[in-house]
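> call design_seq(struct)
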């Protein structure tokens, strides 16, 4: 019989199809493939992008030239503009403001054929440092209330360029979903005097049925009430509300956890399109005892349709216990060590 499961953080209900669950091979999959052609993100084409705002160059080469390992540039077609004031105002009963914000692209590697999951752990660590460095810089602008880091991999996930990259958008408001997550975590903390994410870590570690992987600093798990098949979270074991306030050891551990998860997903789901999002605290707020930053990974295996739009419920045809088992038992190769490029 199908189950209704309630997310313990924001209270969202999902339908889990336990009686006719889909295995990895049951999904109609479209593996992400490289088509080639001209790429503005490849080395030698630096003049085809806006001037960089950050780059790691082990050889100390000049700005906007090749020799970089990670490069960050403003999005050529930004969702929001950096210049100007917010100019909040009413339009009758409605509210509006200027579309102020920052929109940047983090080019994760100079290698066109590489993906985040195929990079060495130290290269992934460099990418995480780029995320951190850009958040630290942009949060100095008091207009920005929330900075979102996300990655779209493959056309089905919304990627328009195939060269491995992530995106950053700094917003003048805190998004509604983030507010719901913050408020749900706060109410849990008020009632139990404990962080809900820390409790999830303890319970999932003890039961083990939804655990995908674990290292010294992180637990990778299928959440109890996932919206999507094979949705997976990576949660740091040490409580911290803001991603950018983490230590170098944390970024090292996250790089290992990310590579491990992405290799397992590529193996089990045949290099799927996916979305990856870092959930972190609003940038203008102090450290929070009730909130815990984390990473959410969502393969694009199903489509949102009328039922989901009409109810806010999600239907998931693969129980998280089974998804975790498939990912956990996948046979993957051990990554080779490499020195980080960040100075």
């Amino acid at each position: 019989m199908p189950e209704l499961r309630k997310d313990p953080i924001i209270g969202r209900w999902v339908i889990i199809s336990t009686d006719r669950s889909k295995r990895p091979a049951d999904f109609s999959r479209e593996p992400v493939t490289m088509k080639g052609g001209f790429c503005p993100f490849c080395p030698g084409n630096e003049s085809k992008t806006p001037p960089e705002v950050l780059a790691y160059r082990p050889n100390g080469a000049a700005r906007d030239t090749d020799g970089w390992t990670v490069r960050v540039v403003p999005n050529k077609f930004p969702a929001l503009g950096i210049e100007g004031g917010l100019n909040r105002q009413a339009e009758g009963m409605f509210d509006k403001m200027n579309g102020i914000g920052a929109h940047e692209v983090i080019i994760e590697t100079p290698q066109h054929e590489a993906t985040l999951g195929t990079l060495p752990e130290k290269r992934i660590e460099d990418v995480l440092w780029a995320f951190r460095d850009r958040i630290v810089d942009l949060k100095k602008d008091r207009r920005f209330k929330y900075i979102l880091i996300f990655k779209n991999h493959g056309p089905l996930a919304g990627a328009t360029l195939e060269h491995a990259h992530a995106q950053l958008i700094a917003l003048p408001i805190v998004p509604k979903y983030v507010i719901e997550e913050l408020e749900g975590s706060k109410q849990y903390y008020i009632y139990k005097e404990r962080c809900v994410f820390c409790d999830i870590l303890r319970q999932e570690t003890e039961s083990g049925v939804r655990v995908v992987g674990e290292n010294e600093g992180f637990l990778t798990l299928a959440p109890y009430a996932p919206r999507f098949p094979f949705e997976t979270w990576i949660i740091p074991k040490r409580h911290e509300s803001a991603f950018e306030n983490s230590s170098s050891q944390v970024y090292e551990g996250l790089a290992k956890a990310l590579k491990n998860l992405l290799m397992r997903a590529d193996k089990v789901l045949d290099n799927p399109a996916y979305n990856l999002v870092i959930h972190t605290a609003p940038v203008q707020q102090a450290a929070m005892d009730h909130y815990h930053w984390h990473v959410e990974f969502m393969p694009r295996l199903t489509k949102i349709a009328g039922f989901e739009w009409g109810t806010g419920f999600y239907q998931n045809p693969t129980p998280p216990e089974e998804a975790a088992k498939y990912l956990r038992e996948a046979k993957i190769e051990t990554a080779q060590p490499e020195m980080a490029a960040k100075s």
